Design the sequence.
């Protein structure tokens, strides 16, 4: 019975807080624009798999139609082997989004685990984790990613792994900082005094109170992961061709920059709009989750 | 203060060991080694074996790494497998190009962002603020290589004003510097704005105004000076990252800097070259960051007092 009341009140509290955050989000035009665009891009990624056929629309070559400038039949033109650029761009959202999201999930899992352990326990363990993370952060992320991809071989999965690993240090830092502000609170002492084990305390009492910076960081990191991934593809180390990842499309279009500049224009625009909407959403979330930060 | 500097420099040693090990190991992990590239096409198995021995590839990685580090203690960063010249020399040959691009980019970024950030903070909430913030966000969201290509399309191919790549004259540096600088501008404008906003509501600004200091002077002297610390931090970090070489921009504009050198060496598995360059880079970056921390003391007397008092505590973030 007592449990039930607690559950109800907890649920009520959570809902009202979410409603409060949503109310603040709605007032922020930029954040709402970002949210709408992100939802739209996710929908495109989902439905392009249904409406476009991978074999014919996305990678099927049609030499007779090669390098056609944008027209009604091909709103964004065709590339050097006659593939419709718009179909490839729409389908490409699947690659760019999934690489960004999976990479950040990898970074999130490792970063949050290490960061919360470092922040909560402190001492030698913290020292080791933080120094290791500093070291990883000292190698420029693009270079580290290049090294990882060339060590593991070029594939979409390795690209995700490389971008993910290089984003770990940021999550370690942010989580540790947030955990440190929480770890000396009275409710942590209380849960310790009723005999909860340390990991349970971290999982159910510390982390829930550190969520806002982590959520904000996650949104912003997906944006930068998409840029990193497309940069790697641009250097020829990302998603292997003929898959239509935006960065590799750009890199392929670069050869035809003289005379066929639309081949570099549209993929870049797609990357920018996606990243911009994620950044808008992330900024909006930050303002909504922590009104104190809003200036 | 000297103790602090020495302590910071000593802390570099474990970092260098860690990074060099990480890099050495990851690159060694990559399939295919340098021998397949050095060996003549008609090399026999025995010849390849000989080459492997000559370059020490028959020894386990830990021993090779140990030998490399032993050389490093004597100040020898190794010799490039491909070019055959000392790594230090190759690095130093490229460094001036990277330095030039780095300072030009920082210059572009500072000249644009600090006035924009101040403007946006002073007119908080107005259309000026909104437009500045939208531009900053656009700059942040634009992939570097795309911006570079767009600039090439516009200024080299359509207008024919500037060279699309290469190196040599002042005209060559403009487009790469704008490309790198724009990415930095976004971050720096946002930092300047928020740091100015922190300061702008302080009592001492009201005091300054009420005693009749002209508004321009209030902003430029009283406010900006107190808002400088976060701005310096960002500029310092950006300078440090630029000195590492802007790999992507250098590739787009065929700029012969350190970034390209490292990228090419990773691709050809030139382990001493990559490891050596990264060690040099780490040292450069750490020294810049140390200078930034010391600059705090120059800008803010309160921090200087702390250095004097404790003789060693980090203040940066």
Sequence:
């Amino acid at each position: 019975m007592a449990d039930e009341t607690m559950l109800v009140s907890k649920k009520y509290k959570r809902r009202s807080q979410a409603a409060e955050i949503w109310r603040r989000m709605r007032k922020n035009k930029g954040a709402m624009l970002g949210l709408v665009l992100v939802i739209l891009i996710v929908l495109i990624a989902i439905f392009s798999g249904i409406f476009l056929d991978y074999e014919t629309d996305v990678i099927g070559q049609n030499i007779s139609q090669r390098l056609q400038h944008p027209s009604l039949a091909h709103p964004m033109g065709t590339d050097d082997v006659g593939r419709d650029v718009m179909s490839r761009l729409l389908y490409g959202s699947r690659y760019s989004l999934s690489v960004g999201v999976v990479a950040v999930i990898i970074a999130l899992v490792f970063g949050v685990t290490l960061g919360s352990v470092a922040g909560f326990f402190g001492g030698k363990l913290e020292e080791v984790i933080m120094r290791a993370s500093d070291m990883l952060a000292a190698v420029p992320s693009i270079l580290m990613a290049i090294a990882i991809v060339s060590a593991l071989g070029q594939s979409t999965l390795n690209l995700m792994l490389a971008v993910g690993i290089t984003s770990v240090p940021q999550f370690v830092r942010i989580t540790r900082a947030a955990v440190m502000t929480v770890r000396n609170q009275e409710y942590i002492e209380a849960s310790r005094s009723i005999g909860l084990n340390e990991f349970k305390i971290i999982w159910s009492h510390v982390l829930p109170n550190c969520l806002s910076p982590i959520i904000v960081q996650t949104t912003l990191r997906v944006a930068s992961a998409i840029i990193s991934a497309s940069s790697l593809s641009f250097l020829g180390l990302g998603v292997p061709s003929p898959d239509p990842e935006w960065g590799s499309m750009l890199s392929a279009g670069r050869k035809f920059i003289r005379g066929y500049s639309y081949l570099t224009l549209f993929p870049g625009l797609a990357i920018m709009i996606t990243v911009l909407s994620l950044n808008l959403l992330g900024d909006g979330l930050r303002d909504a989750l922590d009104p104190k930060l809003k200036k | 203060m000297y103790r602090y500097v020495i302590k910071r420099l000593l802390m570099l040693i474990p970092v260098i060991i860690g990074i060099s090990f990480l890099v050495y190991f990851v690159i060694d992990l990559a399939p295919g080694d340098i021998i397949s590239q050095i060996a003549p096409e008609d090399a026999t198995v025995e010849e390849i074996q000989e080459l492997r021995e000559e370059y020490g590839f028959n020894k386990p990685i830990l021993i090779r790494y140990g030998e490399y580090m032993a050389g490093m203690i004597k100040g020898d960063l190794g010799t490039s497998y491909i070019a055959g010249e000392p790594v230090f020399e190759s690095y130093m040959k490229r460094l001036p190009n990277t330095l030039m691009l780095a300072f030009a980019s920082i210059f572009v970024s500072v000249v644009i962002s600090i006035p924009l950030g101040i403007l946006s903070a002073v007119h908080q909430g107005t259309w000026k603020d909104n437009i500045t913030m939208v531009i900053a966000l656009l700059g942040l969201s634009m992939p570097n290589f795309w911006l570079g290509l767009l600039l090439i399309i516009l200024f080299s191919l359509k207008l024919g004003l500037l060279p699309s790549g290469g190196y040599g004259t002042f005209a060559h540096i403009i487009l790469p510097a704008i490309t790198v600088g724009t990415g930095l501008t976004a971050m720096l404008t946002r930092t300047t704005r928020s740091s100015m906003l922190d300061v702008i509501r302080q009592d001492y600004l009201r005091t300054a105004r009420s005693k009749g200091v002209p508004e321009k002077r209030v902003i430029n002297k009283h406010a900006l000076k107190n808002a400088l610390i976060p701005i310096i931090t960002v500029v310092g970090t950006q300078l440090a990252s630029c000195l590492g070489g802007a790999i992507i921009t250098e590739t787009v504009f065929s700029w012969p800097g350190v970034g390209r050198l490292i990228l090419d060496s990773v691709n050809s598995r030139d382990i001493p070259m990559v490891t050596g360059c990264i060690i040099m880079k780490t040292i450069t970056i750490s020294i810049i960051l140390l200078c930034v921390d010391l600059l705090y003391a120059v800008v803010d007397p309160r921090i200087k007092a702390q250095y004097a008092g404790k003789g060693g505590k980090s203040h940066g973030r």
